[in-house]
Each structure stands twice: as C-alpha cells, then as structure tokens.
Amino acid sequence: MGSPVIEVKQLHTSFMTDDGEIPVVSGIDFHVNPGEVLGIVGESGCGKSVTSLSVMGLVPSPNGRVKGEILFKGENLASASEKRMRQIRGNEIAMIFQEPMTSLNPVFTIGEQLTESLRIHRKWNKKQAMARAVEMLKLVGLPRAEELVKEYPHQLSGGMRQRVMIAMAMICDPTLLIADEPTTALDVTIQAQILELMKKLNKETDTAIMMITHDLGVVAEMCERIVVMYAGKIVEEGDVKTIFQNPKHPYTVGLIQSVPDMREKKERLYSIPGNVPKPGSIQQGCHFAPRCAHAMAQCLEETPALKSFDNGQQVRCWLYEDGKGAAANDTAIG
Amino acid sequence: MTQPLVKVENLKKHFPIKGGLLGKQVGAVKAVDGVSFFINKGETLGLVGESGCGKSTTGRMLLRLLEPSDGKIYFEGQDITELSTGEMRKMRREMQMVFQDPFASLNPRHTVEKILEEPLIVHGVKDKAERKRRVKELLEVVGLNSWHAKRYPHQFSGGQRQRIGIARALAVNPKLIIADEPVSALDVSIQSQVLNLLQDLQKEFDLTYLFIAHDLGVVRHISDRVGVMYLGNIVELADSEELYDEPMHPYTQALLSAVPIPDVEHKKDRVILQGDVPSPSNPPKGCPFHTRCPQAFDTCATVKPVLQEAKPGHYVACHLYE
Ligand SMILES: Nc1ncnc2c1ncn2[C@@H]1O[C@H](COP(=O)(O)OP(=O)(O)OP(=O)(O)O)[C@@H](O)[C@H]1O
Ligand SMILES: Nc1ncnc2c1ncn2[C@@H]1O[C@H](COP(=O)(O)OP(=O)(O)OP(=O)(O)O)[C@@H](O)[C@H]1O
Ligand SMILES: [Mg+2]
Ligand SMILES: [Mg+2]
Fold it and tell me: What are the ABC transporter domain coordinates in residue numbering (chain A) (predicted)?
C-alpha cells in the first residue's frame, strides 16, 4: 500500500471575527492512501470545506489561521511558500468545487481554461495541450469536444460544466483529487453519470480522492473509508462497511437512521433532537453532548479522545472508554 | 367514490419568450404542458422530477400564484380558474404554501409574531388578543416556544425557520398545503424533524398535501401516491409503494436506479442515461423522453403518448404499454 498520499495531523483552522477568534476545525487527523477514496461526511457548517481549503492552502487570509501539519508525500504544506503551493495546486493536488459556475472563469473559453495548467506546470505547447483537452472532454463523456473547447462556460448546462470541472481537475493526472460536494447541485440522473466517471478515473489513473459530501448514499457508493465530522472534530472513522453496519458514535448512529431509505417506507424517521451548535459555542466537553441521548455528566465536562478498535474503527465517545457503551446502537433508535 | 379535494385537468403554463427589437413573442417555455391529476382529502401526493421539469410551476398554479395558460383546477368541485381575484383571495384561506428557502420567504425585518399575525389579519381576524393567542398556539403546534415570538428570522436555525414557515401556512386553518421542497435546504438530522412534524400535523388536522421534492427517498417516505414529471408532463403516477417497487416508465426506472442508496450491501442495476434534459423552450416532438430513452422506437419520435391507466390506479404515458 505504501505511505499515505496525504496525512493531516492536528489541523486547527480558525477565523478572526468581530466576536473574536472562532475555531472551525479543532484538531483533526486523517490520511488518504494512494488510490483510495476517502469520504468526509457531516452536517452543514461542521468544517468540511474549511478542511479542504486548509489542505489546498486556500484559507482566506488575514482572518483565517491554519495550524498543524499537512504532509503531502512527506512535505509539510502548512509551511510551504505560496509559490510552492501554486506548483502543487491544479497539478499534483486538484480540487472540484461545489458550484461549477463560480469556479469557471466566464471570460475564457473552456479550452483556454482546460489547458492552462498543462501549459504552466508542464510547459506543453498550445497544440499539444489543446489535443489533450479535447481528449479529456471526451473521456468525461461530453459530446462535440472539438467545438466545446471554443465555447464559453455560460453556453453549457450545469451538468456539462461540472464535467468540465472534472476534466480540468484530472487533466494533470493529480495524485490527490479533493472533491467538495461535486454532485450536490446536480440532478440524480446527471449525478449518476458524474459518479460513474469519477469511479472510472479513480480506477484507471489510480488517483486518490477525498470526497466531501453530506449524502450518505454517495458515500456508500463511492468510498472505501469514511471520516465523520461533527462541529469541527472527527467523531468516528472506519471502513465504509463498518460505519454503515456498526456505527458506534451516537451522532453517526442518528445520522444513518435519519435518512429516509427509498427502498422501504418507515413509519417514522429517527430524528436527532436539537440543532448543530454554532462554531466556538461549545467550550468544553464532547461537542455532541447537548444533543446526545446518552450524555453523562462527564460528557459535558471533558472532551473524549479518539479510541481505536481492532478493526481500525475509531470513535470519540465516552461510552466506549470502558465498554459500557455497547448499547448506543440499540437505544438511539428511539 | 367521494369527490377529490383537488382535481386538475390538462393544466398548462407556457411562458412567452420575447425577442427582437419590438419585443414580439418569438417562442414559449413550455414549463407545464398538460398535466392532469387529483388529490384526495387527507392524502399526500408527491411530485418528483429533475430540475426545471415544472414541479414548482404546477404547485404555484394550483394557488393561482401563477395564472394557467390552459386547463382547469377544481377545489372541492369548484372550478377556481374562473374565480375573480377577490374570490380567489378568500379561497387561499383553504390552500397555503410552504417554500423551499425558509429564509428568503420570511421577512427579515418582522418578528415571528408579526409574520404569523399577517395571514390572520388578511383573513379577517380582527381581535388583537385573539391573534396573539393564535400565534402562541401555532408556535406550540410546530414545536417552538411562545418566547420565540419576539425574535427575528435570522435568530433561528434553518430547521426552526422552516417550522415558522409551516406555522405561517397553518395560521388560517387551510385544507390543502402545497409544500415546495420544504426540506431540501436542511441537513438530514433536521430534515427528519420537519418531515415528522408534517406527518403529525397531517394526522391532527386532516391536512392534504401536495409535496414537491427532488429527493426520491423523502418523497417515498411522506407520500401516499407519487407523480413523476419530465419536461412539463406527468409521465407516471401511482401508489407510492407500487411506483417505487414496480416503475413502468423508462424514465422512472432510470431515475430510481440513479439514486445512491445509503447501504453498502446494496447491489444496483443502474440505467445511466445519456445526455442532458432537453430545453422546455424546444421540447422534442413525440414523447418528451425519447431523446434519452434506452427503449425508444420509431413511434416515440413522432407521437406523444398520453397518460393512461395501465393497471388499476397506476398511470403511465409510454408507448411500450399501449
Ligand atoms: N471566511 C470565513 N470566515 C468566518 N467563518 C467562516 C469562514 N469560512 C467558513 N466559516 C465558518 O466555518 C464553519 C465551517 O464551514 P464549512 O464551509 O467548512 O462547512 P461545511 O462543513 O463545508 O458545510 P456545508 O455542508 O454547508 O458546505 C461555518 O460555521 C462557517 O460559517
Ligand atoms: N417566470 C418564468 N418565466 C420563464 N420561464 C420560467 C418562469 N418560471 C419558470 N420558468 C421555466 O419553467 C421551467 C419549469 O420551472 P419550475 O420552476 O417549475 O421547475 P421545477 O421542476 O420546480 O425545478 P426545480 O427542481 O429546479 O425547482 C423551467 O425551465 C424554468 O426555467
Ligand atoms: Mg462545504
Ligand atoms: Mg422548483
């Protein structure tokens, strides 16, 4: 398997606001192995996008602060210069953003945008690069590739633009692809096309993928391993099968049970009471404790550490410190 | 058979496309192109389909927030397309709408109390104390507290704001609620709270819902029957169990097979459709789906199939079943 493509250690990202410094990502650790698809799930505002921006060195300054280590093939990107980051971005690490329209430049043609990284990073000439761009557009299933390279983003539908984004991200054969909700804005039949394509590219080029999404269906379909985030922390991690079939953290259990399953009708959905806390509003204890049916006095006072199990599953919950918590699974089905 | 609460016949909405120097009409967006369905009292009819297929336009026409270009809408047997504006305003007491974006649909400068009082004033509740009492009651019904009344929308979370939107719709004791993507903007854990609330309210007040959404899991969960739309047409309509277990229309089959299932053991036989949804300003001749249909044959490109009852209660518009 070799060493991880990327290894993030104790990442802390915070923002300076009028209310002071707000921690958004509070000490997370994860890694992605070569050729692996890692899913990062969690509710809106839990810090998924900020995590990916931190890895890419794109956290807006001067308000954003990033601490910790981001080891990409052994090199710590957290202390890399902006010049070095520019060499890596779009070349060795590529990113697909959620909203394709905002990340394509309206005044350049599709071809100009697709070839930019090849010409800058690989110093290819225009003709070579254009030929590769056409080839990539065909690979992502776009018709009329030769004409499309001469067109502008507004002439394309949302699904087509998202495929262009994927072509652009994959054109330099990145070692790591960060996909932040790559299909959330798309219809299901188009989403199915795009996911199929990403799977194919992952298999064929062995690109490692960090897949950020809130859709558990997408995760079940695409990922080998999952990291579950809640309010800036990782609460659970494991291979996809374990997490779906034997989730341990009460948040993960609740999350999985909240999703209506299209295949069968449940009388009533499980719902986690309460709301996601505002970043920085929980000063001590487990971030999920205020919504947790199993919360004990200890949970409100001390932050639990990530505990590892033999099967590689990791969970951050006091219930599992001394074995008394095996029950979380059954009783959350309230 | 008792009379349905709502009955829609051949409903159409064509938005004109203006062009040229004189702003003459040069074409039309056929947003809704002849849909027919009914909703029984106390049931939930789900409406699904991909972006732009005409779900919201259909919902808005039922309330005549948009004027239909053609077709009839009967509410308790009465043709409401014939009503004058004044008569229609009274009628809206019976039919209310819950919108997708709970934030955009609530006036940010008004307190929750004011937001909830407004429909009461419009519908003639003159006594101030009576209104206050009703606001308090409504907040409790949707699981908020009376002290929330003095707050502004931005002080609430997304799920709470959607509860306020629901409370506002309930204020005048409607019979029909048209919910247009009411949980699409919410996180799953909050989404299930709102879905449960809608179900509880339906039981308690014998409400009838038209539930519009693109999430097929959500629609199955909440609906008794489901209609599938494609390019301004209903292509299939059946009991929800039946539709999900035995879809007949090739589009419904592709749509259902495209949904990622949150279960790692699930084996799928996926129909991946080619190409994009055609534009409703230039819909294909014949069957609107034939350009992407894996089973299309000659007739499909020329003759538009009509919605027919293929099995009892199961309607489909497809030449394969004629
Ligand atoms: N530039 C910024 N300044 C201040 N706060 C920010 C900034 N960017 C993000 N945040 C805050 O950080 C938190 C995490 O945001 P992030 O975008 O990572 O969430 P997410 O998990 O990606 O959510 P979603 O699923 O909605 O995309 C949010 O509360 C957000 O408001
Ligand atoms: N006021 C309008 N003028 C012109 N075209 C319109 C107008 N309103 C809607 N349309 C068009 O009508 C079609 C149907 O729109 P509608 O909003 O009903 O779709 P929808 O099924 O609700 O989609 P979504 O899932 O994206 O909400 C779309 O092509 C839309 O662009
Ligand atoms: Mg995000
Ligand atoms: Mg809509």
Answer: 6-256
Q: Calculate mean pLDDT across residues B245-260.
A: 95
The confidence score (pLDDT) of residue A101 equals 60
Reduced to 3 states (helix: H, G, I; strand: E, B; else coil), residue B2 is: coil
Q: Report how far apart, in Å, the C-alpha atoms of A5 and of each of A8, A91, B206 are.
A: 10, 14, 57
Q: Which long-range contacts (CB under 8 A, 24 or more apart) does B22-29 make?
A: B27/B281, B27/B282, B28/B281, B29/B280, B29/B281
Whether ligand 2 lies within 6 angstroms of the CB of B57 is answered as yes
Count of Cβ atoms closer than 10 Å to residue A81 Cβ = 9
- How would residue A333 be classed by pLDDT, with cut points 50, 70 and 90? very low
- For residue B179, what is the enclosing H or E element? strand B176-180
Query: Which pLDDT belongs to residue A193?
Result: 83
> Nearest-5° angle of CA A274, CA A225, CA A180?
65
Encoded amino acid at A174, one letter: P
Which atom of ligand 1 is least distant from the CA of A50? 18
For residue B173, what are the CA distances in angstroms to B115, B166, B170, B201? 16, 11, 5, 11
- Inter-CA distances, A238 with A224, A296, A313, Å: 9, 25, 4
Mean pLDDT for all residues in chain B: 92
For chain A, give every domain's residue range. 6-223, 229-329
Section A101-128 average pLDDT: 90
Instruction: Tell me which residue in B51, B217, B260 faces A221 most closely, judged by beta carbons.
Output: B260
Section B169-175 average pLDDT: 92
Across residues A281-307, what is the average pLDDT? 92
Do A296 and A225 meet the contact criterion of CB atoms below 8 Å apart?
no
Q: What is the dihedral of CA B185, B189, B191, B194, to 10 degrees?
A: -130
Q: Which amino acid is at B280?
A: P
Residue among A190, A220, A271 whose CB faces B193 most closely? A271
What sign does the CA torsion over B56, A101, A15, A73 have? positive
SS3 letters across chain A: CCCCCEEEEEEEEEEEECCEEEEEEEEEEEEECCCCEEEEECCCCCCHHHHHHHHHCCCCCCCEEEEEEEEECCEEHHHCCHHHHHHHECCCEEEECCCHHHHCCCCCCHHHHHHHHHHHHCCCCHHHHHHHHHHHHHHCCCCCHHHHCCCCHHHCCHHHHHHHHHHHHHCCCCCEEEEECCCCCCCHHHHHHHHHHHHHHHHHHCCEEEEECCCHHHHHHHCCEEEEEECCEEEEEEEHHHHHHCCCCHHHHHHHHHCCCCCCCCCCCCCCCCCCCCCCCCCCCCCCHHHCCCCCHHHHHCCCCEEECCCCCEEECHHHCCCHHHHHHHHCCC
Write out residues 61-120 of A within 8 Å (CB-CB) of B: none
Domain A6-223, CATH among 3.40.50.300, 3.30.160.20, 3.40.50.620, 3.90.1170.50:
3.40.50.300
The dihedrals phi and psi of A31, each to the nearest 5 degrees, come to: -145, 160
Which region among A240-249, A322-331, B99-108 has the lowest average model confidence (pLDDT)?
A: A322-331
Q: How confident is the model at residue B258 (pLDDT cuts 50, 70, 90)?
A: very high
- Structure-token pair, residue A25: 């990502």
Mutation for testing the B interface, residue in A275, A287, A288, A292 having most B CBs under 10 Å: A275
pTM, two decimal places = 0.89
The identity of residue A127, as a single letter, is K
Express each pLDDT in A230-258 by its tens digit.
999 999 999 999 999 999 999 999 999 99
